[in-house]
Structures are given as structure tokens and as C-alpha cells.
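Purpose: get a first structural picture of the assembly so the mutagenesis plan has something to point at.
Setup: two entries, given in the order below. No constraints added.
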Amino acid sequence: MRHEILRMLENNSRIDLHDLAIMLGTDESVVLEEIEKMENEGIICGYPTLINWDKTDTEKVTAFIEVRVTPQRGQGFEKLAERITNYPEVKSIYLMSGAFDFAIFLEGKTLKEVSMFVSTKLSTLEAVAGTATHFVLKKYKDHGMILIDKEPANRMKVTP
Amino acid sequence: MRNPLSDKVVQMKPSGIRKFFDLVQEMPDAISLGVGEPDFDTPWHIREEGIYSLEKGRTFYTSNAGLLELRKAIAHYMYRKYELTYNPAHEIVVTVGGSEGIDLALRAMLNPGDEVILPEPAFVSYLPCVKLADGVPVTIDLKEENHFKLKPEELLAVITDKTKILILSYPNNPTGAIMTREDLEPIAEIVKEKDLYVISDEIYAELTYGQDHCSIASLPGMRDRTIIINGFSKSFAMTGWRMGFATGPELIMQQILKIHQFAIMAAPTTSQYAAIEAMTNGEEDVQIMRNAYNQRRRFVLELFSEMGLKCFEPEGAFYIFPCIKEFGMTSDEFANRFLREEKVAIIPGTAFGDCGEGFLRVSYAYSIEELKEALGRLANFVERLRKEKNL
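Result (C-alpha cells, whole complex):
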């Protein structure tokens, strides 16, 4: 049940609760209770909307930053990571295996703003040993959703 | 000038769906519940194998029966699903969709005048294909109160000395009915006792929502009396690839292969490579799609129950077959008016045999949003009819 609810919500967080209950063959109250439990347990972390900003007038720049870190004694990566999460510019931060430690997705209004953030805020953190900034040029798919225009479905309307 | 045409073909009734199709064509803004194919795209890893085979230049004929690798994958699949053993060398033919398999099996087995028992409502191809193969179709009107399953007494009632083949098609298009092992057992007994053969169209076998599909060929003594028609269209959302297969005893399959070899040569090569990928790595896709269909099935059933439209709970395929007899209209009248007034295409039950009168075929191979819109319009229409008729 949980798994099915999560799968449905992951695709459409605005799904009608009544519809969802019918589709899962159960009662609305059961679904609601399960969702609330998962919210409390931190399994469901929020219901943000996926926006293709490129189609709006709003200027947005996304960058992916590789960050190399000197882990601090007794704290590992956690303390630094926690600190970085506090910047509203930081959309995501992941601890990575491989050649660098943190992968950070940043959002800003302009290239300059993002660059400034990296050079003045991120690079100057004590444990940060180095960064590499990559700007996103175009988004084709995000959070499982295809953002480029697709050919409309061409199924015939009536078939045996 | 001489009449250039075959009397047999001229006498064939055009498909009832065709007529309706033309009507819908004139209404480009109409939405539909009339589609007999999945709304999912073919899973990408399957499409990619097709593309890859083209890149590799695999653009030649395959052997007539299909790529051996694909036939082996099919044999493995049939064993995994039904514990049925077919020799990939002689007992499996890859066809151009399930439809070709139906035609081939009938042509390979029928002599003029042989009777073929055809329970209806049924897929539109069986009856014309029986006639083209010089067989005589004998229809059975299945009953809604039996959930459109074939009952042993119904079968016994139509068997004559000339009966040779029984066509079974479960999970069923258009009713969504299934037949369980217990339902099939008495049928199999009659088939053996009366020395008949079965053409079992199991194209929707992967789409059952209660228990797993049971093939009649897997019942004792039935393997060598059954030709199974199956394919990739519905289970793997591959309708446009035209990929089907037929399995059965060597004696019959070799004759089927002969016709296929002369009429078709071999199924499309690109599609065959994609089909290998579907058979070997497609199980999870099937599960995901089955789950989505089941959710929609529950959704549509609930909406019908809210409308007060009577229908039995279908357990297979992606169709629901509601009854509209309360309105005192024919299926055709209902579908035509519904199309004109609410701009939704829905197929009248009569397109699948005369006994489909009083029913509609509703496909739920649509997104929940599309279903909501179309069924909302149906609810409006039904309400209007009830007011008109003071029901």
C-alpha cells in the first residue's frame, strides 16, 4: 500500500485523494492516514511543483558544483553539509563517491550571481578544498519528467 | 467486363467498428473510449533494441518461423508462465501480430464445411477468418449472468458431427471476462470427448487482475489439441510492431508455417529483435502496466456504479462491458447519440456479435484524467436519458 501510494504521489502530488483511494481499492480515510504517517516519518518530504522556468520570463541560472572537502576530525562531512543546506541558493546537495565529495545544484538569477556565491560563500568555507562550477545550458528531463516538447500521441480513436 | 471480385469476399460484412470509425473521423474534436490498444509507449529498452538492430544493419529476412533466438525466448516464456513445453525448432511460429496467427491456424486446420464454434461477443476477426477458410461459424451467445464465460452446456448444445474447432478468447475483448482453470476443466473434457481442437487466443494473457491466466493447453491432454495465439501487442505495448506468435503441436504448426512462409515470408526483422528484448527483460514493464490498468479498472467500475450503470466486474484485458438495456435503445443508437451530443466515441457491443446488443465496450487504456473527462460526459448523458424517459 505505502509503496503504491508513494509511486502515485511521486508522479502526481496533486492527485485527488478520492480517486487515489478508488484506484488502490481502499477507503479515502485509509489513504489519508497512511499519507499523514509518512509525512510525520519524513518519508514524504514535501509537495513541490516541477516548473520549466525556461518557458517563463523569469531569468534563472542553474549550476552544478563539484566540491572537494577536507573532512574534519570527529565530524566527517555532516557538519559542513548541514551548513551548506542553509543557503537558499542551494537546491540540492549530495555526498558522492569518486573524484569529488559534494555535488551541489545551485540556482541564481545570473551567471554572475552564481559565480559570486561560489567564490565568496562556498569556496571560503574552511573545509572546502576546491570547487568546479558547471553551468546548465538546457534541461531536457528533470525529476523523471521530460521537458522537451513531445510529438502528440497519434493513436487512432477507434480500433478493434 | 467480368466481375473481378471473389463472391466470398464481397459477401463479407465490413467490420462494425469501421463504420463507427468513419463517423468519428468526421468529428476531429471528439474524445474516445474506443481504443483497443495500450496507451503506454513501448518501454524504451525494447525500442532501443529495435534501433540497435537497425544500426547493426540487421535488415534482412529472418528464417520463416522467426529468429531462433526469439523462438527460444518464447519457448522459455511459455514454460515459465504455463509449464508448457514447445520445441522452438518445430512448434513455434513468429507471426505478424496475433491476427495473422488466427488466420493461419484456421486455414491450416479447416476443410470446407467444417464447423467452428465461436462464442460471442468476440474479437472482430474470427468470424470472417473462419469464412475465408471455408469453415462454417457456429456462434454461441454468451450470457452476462455467467460473466460471459463459456459454459459446458452451452458448448454441448451446438456440437455436431461437423464441429472441428472451438475458438476461445480469454481474457476477452470486448467483455473483459476471464476463464479460470476450474471454468476451463469441463470445457477441456468436452473437447477431448468430442475430439475437437481449440484455437485459444491469449493475446491479453498478461492482463488479469485477480488470478494469473490459465491456458487451456496446460490442462491434461490438451496441449496437442490446442493452438495458442499470443503476441507482444497488449502485454508489452507493442501494437505497431506487429509481433505475434503461435505455438502448438508440430503436426499443425508445420502446416501453419507453410502458409506463413508463402503468404508473409517472415515477420519484420526489426520487430523480432525488439521482441527478444521484451521476452527476456520485459517482466517488470508488464507488472507496472498491469498495475496501472488495474487502478484504472477500479476507477471506471466505481464511476459506473455511481452512475448506476449495470456491469459485471471484468477481471482481464482493458475493457468494461456495461449494460444499457434500461434505456430502451440499441447499442448503435446509444453510441451514435453519445458521440453526437457529448463528442465521445464508444464502441457499440454489436460490433462484436449480435449478442452484444444492449452493451457498450468501454476501453480503459487511457490516463485517469482522460477517463474522468469521458466518463463525466457519459454520466451527463445517462442522466439526460433517464430524465427523458422518466426512468
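Chain B has two domains: 7-42+284-381, 44-281.
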